[in-house]
Amino acid sequence: xxxxxxxxxxxxxxxxxxxxxxxxxxxxxxxxxxxxxxxxxxxxxxxxxxxxxxxxxxxxxxxxxxxxxxxxxxxxxxxxxxxxxxxxxxxxxxxxxxxxxxxxxxxxxxxxxxxxxxxxxxxxxxxxxxxxxxxxxxxxxxxxxxxxxxxxxxxxxxxxxxxxxxxxxxxxxxxxxxxxxxxxxxxxxxxxxxxxxxxxxxxxxxxx
Length: 208
What we know:
The protein has 10 helices and 5 strands, in the order βαβαααααβαβααβα.
């Protein structure tokens, strides 16, 4: 198999890079479609999955989950709602990614894919990043928000993603040793970053 995971800082344009890479290689792309599939399988709305995704649970939610696992008779308003746990959401996401892998070469964006597939040998793990100033500028342009709003989006989103990975996999999402290739999308641009990743993927998997 050939699996390329793209992890990214919010505002780096990593999803755009991944889309170009997948199109150039002729591989399947798993990005926002994962959210739709998870929502369908778990009987949730897309909005709810998006709200839960890469969000660190509160102390109350963690205690609720732990106590519910320890006693089937214990109940609370949160438990009674029968909302799926983060672990269940991650497991469904894992199944969807694995099903996509079976169908052929795939580019997977975020969703903990790098952490889920860290032990596989048939992978190329890529990290897209840029200086904070560039992340803010891209977010301002893409979202049509002020500099302050963009800065808040960048800082809070990346903080949540860092915490999510640390909580569920005990890994540092930004540690370069977790990746085969790290690309600076400000220095290279979206197209330049995609070109470099395509070259690396062809070299890694021996494709023309």
